[in-house]
# Entry
Amino acid sequence: MPTNKSSPVKTRKKLAPVPEYDIIPSTSARKRGKLEDASQSTLFVNSVEKAMRVLAIFDGKQPRLSLSQIAVVTGLDLSAVQRFTFTLSALGYLVKDPFTKTYSLSPKMLDFSYFYLASNELVNRAAPYLRQLSQETEETTNITVLEGTDIVFTLRMISRHVLAPQVITGSRLPAYCTAPGLAIMANLPPAEVQKILEHSNLIEHTPNTIADPDKIQRRLGSIRRQGYSHTEGEYYLGDISTAAAILDAHGYPIGAVNVAVSRARWRGAKDEKKMADLVIMAASAISGQF
# Structure
C-alpha cells in the first residue's frame, strides 16, 4: 500500500553503527565518527588500532567468535586476523577454545580496569563519600565521567532496590539524556557542549527522553542555575536519577555523582529536594582537590 507523504507522523532516527575507531563498544546513541579523528596523523599506528579493534568486538552479545567471524566483524582479512589473534593469545588477552576453535577475552583484560581504578584520583577520593551517600539513601549511587558523547560508570555502589543491575563499572550511557551526563554538560564551555550534541545521535530512548538540541540547551541552563540535574525514566523507564557535577580546582567538570531511585520508591518533590541536597553536598566535598 502506498504511503501518504503528507502524513504528520515522524519516524525516529535509527541508531548509528558503532564508529570504526571506537575502542570500547558503547550503548549510547553516538553518530559515526569521533570528536577528534587522529587516524590521519603520521604518529597513528595502524597495527595497534587493528589489534584493539579485534579486542573490542568481544562484548556481551558476542562473547565467542571464530576467525572467520572476527574477520567479518572487524573488516580485516583472514590472514591479518590470524596474526592478531595469535599475538593477543600469546600475550594472554585472548583465549582459544581447543574444541570449538573460537576465541574469547581472558581474565587478563581485567588488569586494565584494575590499573585504572587503582590509579584514578577521582575514584579514590570519591569512594568514601559515595559509600556514605549510599548508606544514607539506601539507594544505588554512582561516580561517572564523560568520555566522548557518553558517560562511563567508574564507581558504582548498588542497593538492594537497584532497577538496572546490568549497569556495571565500565558501562556507558548517552550523556544528553542521563542525569550525570547533563550535570557535566551544564558545566562545560558552550563550544564543548555544542560538539557533544553535534556528535550525538539524539534519539528518544523512552517517551520521556528530551532529544531536541534546543530543549537540551535550555535544560542545561536551568541545571547550571539550580546546581543539579534530574531525570525521570529518560533512558530506563522507572529509573529516577539526581546528579551534581564534580569540579576540579579551576571549575571544570571532571565527573558527576548521582543517586538512582526506582519509581516505586519515589515520593515526588520531597525526594527530589532531599536527593538534590545530598548529591550537591557530596559533589562539593569531592570537588576542588584535583
Remarks:
- The chain has a mean pLDDT of 88.
- The chain has two domains: 46-110, 120-286.
- Residues 141 and 259 are 5 Å apart (CA to CA).
- The longest strand covers residues 253-262.
